[in-house]
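Narrative of activities, Objective 1.

The group set out to show that a structural description can be obtained from nothing but a protein's sequence at a throughput compatible with the screening campaign. Below is one input-output pair from the validation batch, recorded exactly as produced.
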Amino acid sequence: MAQNGTYLCDNQGDSAAGFGLGSGDLGIPFRLSDGTWGYVFGDCFTNQEATDPYIGSPVMVYQNTFDGSGQTPITFTGAQPSPTVAQLFGYQHRADNGFGNEVSRIPNDAIALSQDGRNRLFIQYTSVAQWVAPGSADDGSLQGGVAYSDDGGASWRDFDQHWPGSAKGGNGSPELMWSFAGVDPDGYLYIFSKPWNGSHNYSGDGGRIQLFRYRPADFFDGNLAARENWVYQGDTWQWLPAATAAATSIFAPGNNIGEFSVKRIGELYVMSYFDTTDYSIRTRTAARPDQPWSDPKTQVVGDRGLSPSRWRRPVLKNLYGGYIHPGSPDSSNLTLIISAWDGTAGHRPYTATQWSGLSV
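Output recorded for this entry:
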């Protein structure tokens, strides 16, 4: 049977625990240049139930082979570093690391790119200034950044550019939370981004998502000013240099959105996201990144609300996240990685779960 909420960690003696990862969330999947798989977690702990010792964020484990059919649960076969995981980035939590006080650096997506015989890993992250309460008009962010590694994830450094968050006057900036849709057959690297809402409590989110693209060589080398934005201008949508026009949200104002993910699966682009208003994981599809997107389809719901859109949908208590596994074979057999936690240390589960066999 396909996986339906299979824990990736927070189980005694599981493959994650074998590498020192007792409990953690997100589990963002991406493909490495050698064809194996990486999974990037957020705040992690050595013990189960989100209890100390605290490891940090982000944290990464590896898998040699992913079963795209979903018949086999994800099993980790390696760690960064080996043999026991540790925080990837060199910074201190709840401290000023040269940018202002930051609680944690939370990964939003990861991608591996190759250029002129070089392999490089990238993680886009949000530095959190504070975790905000429900209904907050402040998104709680410090800044967004892109870190890269040239040695398979052993060491990391940031590109010089950072995007200011709320603590630096950029409250609600749509630049802080990215998803790498991947390099399209047209040769461009497409990226979607939105305001930081990792707390799931930011009232000004509004479901805004924007789109931009790079020549992979430009992004690889950190020429971040070379991007083109997808812009609605002069009664038409068009690609324009970022220096001349800001990107436009591809969706009209709607429900608030937490974590999101966009990947090219087969011949379709698939978007998955945590709808914090509906309390569910939903998907949309489009033929191209810059083409119209379908109406949302509810895939997995939380444990509250009885609206018709939730009837006969699988349920995961305290859900969030919802990252598309790029190894999914097609849009009729999608694997999502969905997190679960009630936010209280000592409460189980604090984990990311595997859902396979979903159809968009």
